[in-house]
Every structure is written in C-alpha cells, then in structure tokens.
Amino acid sequence: MRGSDTSENLLVRKMESFVRVSGDDIAALDKIWNGTRHSVAPQGDIVREGDPPGVIRVLMKGWACRYKLLGDGRRQIISFFLPGDIFDLNMFVLKKMDHSIRALSPVQYVSLSHIEFERLTIGHPRILQALWWETLVNAAIQREWTVNLGQRSALERLAHLLCELHVRLKVMGLVEGNTCEFPITQIELADTLGLTAVHVSRKLKELRSRCLIRLNGNQLQILDFDGLCQIAMFDANYLHLDREEAIPEAKADCG
Fold first, then answer.
1. Nearest to 127 by CA among 251, 254, 15, 255
2. Per-residue burial over 130-168, b = 16 or more CB atoms within 10 Å of its CB, e = otherwise
3. Quick check: 204 and 220 in contact, CB under 8 A?
4. What local confidence, expressed as pLDDT, does residue 252 receive?
C-alpha cells in the first residue's frame, strides 16, 4: 500500500493542501524531509507530559497519538497524527509539555530546532501561511471531537472518526482505492471515543454487518462512504479542504 511509502515528501503535500508553494518552498521542505530520521517503536512515547518541549517534529511514517493520563491510569486520546503531520507548532512557547505523544505503529520523524524553524518561516512566508492554516484546522478538529464526545451516540462517534481519518488520509494520497492503513486497536479506539473496548467491538461489528466497512488486520476498507457519513452526520467542512478530489466516494461489494 502507498501508506508505507515515504519516498514522496508528504510535508510538501500537506503544505500544498493549504497554499500554493513555490519551487524555493519545495526545496526548503525537501531539505527538512531528507534530514536525520528518528525511529520509535509501537507504544513508545515520543514526548512525555512534563518534558521540556525541545524540537518540532514532522511525522514521516507511521501513526501517533496525543494523549492525557489521569492519576489512576485512565487515558484519553486527544488526537491522531498521520504521515505528514507536524507535532505541536507551539512547542517553543511552552516551558514543559502538558500532554504526551505516543507511537501507535513503527514511527519515523524528522525534527526542527527553534533556529531552523525560524529560518523556514521567515524565509518562506507561504509556508508560514500554510502552518497557520494547519493550526486553525487542528483547532477545528478538536472542536468537532468535543461535539463527538458530548452529543453523538457510540455508533455515531465511531463512524465520524472513521470518516475523518479516511478523508485526512485521502488528502495525503495515503488511500488506495477505498482502503487505508488503520493501526489502531479497539482499546485505543475506546480511549479516543470515551467507550469501553467491548462497546467499540460491538459497534464495529454493527458497521460491518451494515456493509459499511471491512477491517482486515491493520487495513480499513470503507465500503460505503456515503452511508458511513449519513450515520455519523459527517460534514467535512471543518477540515477546510481545498481540493475537491480530497473527499472520497467509496462503495464496494460487501462480499
């Protein structure tokens, strides 16, 4: 699957989803993308709450999540990072991290120091504009997640999350046909949606029985995107997509 291919500079694709970048901009982004790679094994923490912020990281490969832990060990997953995403542009403002970031699959990332990031944004105003757009989109996603937890039913929550992740991956060219990587366990889904793992299992089964999705290992196939959207009351406007082809219309035989 294309999801495992890191030859394309997904950081360029990310910026191009917000603004038109120049050849000089692409060269600067290529320099970042071709920098030293850091690897983290699945379930390894990339950043821990309380750590000094350090650097800005660009996810090249794999999936990660931002999460918070309660004192008794309960976890709330707050967001997912996909290839091409940037970890916390506000890192240089914070004195210490107020959340943790964990790898959900084998992860590779590159990092930028404060000086490197400053040079990039000062020398490339279009990239700076794209980063502002990404920050606004991330805030919009968090608002939608709040609505998800507060108002949608368990089935609606799950369907909405699947729609969102599928669209985000589609924008980045990480969907083949109607299939994408999905290295998220039922426990991780439960910690995201405010449900138990048993409840998540039941709702996944319901979506499968309705011929809306198919899960095969770490692969998710959306059999009927429109039907999934209808259940979730999903409207992709909050993702502020610029390219019409970013929204998939996936239908397939349930089989």
1. 15
2. bbebbeebeeebeebbeebeeebebbbbbbbbbbbbbbb
3. no
4. 54
3-class SS at 126? Answer: helix
Strand order from edge to edge, sheet including 175-176: 175-176, 179-181, 219-222, 213-216
129: three-class secondary structure by DSSP: helix
Dihedral over Cα of 191, 194, 200, 203: its sign: negative
Its pTM stands at: 0.91
Taken as a whole, the chain contains a residue count of 255
Mean per-residue pLDDT pooled into runs of 10, the chain (255 residues): 57 91 95 94 95 90 97 96 90 83 97 92 94 92 96 98 96 94 97 97 98 95 97 94 50 56
Bridge partners of residue 175, in order along the sequence: 180
Residues 6 or more apart whose Cβ sits within 8 Å of residue 224: 211, 212, 250, 251, 252
In one-letter notation, the amino acid at residue 157 is: R
| Strand partners of residue 179 | 176, 221
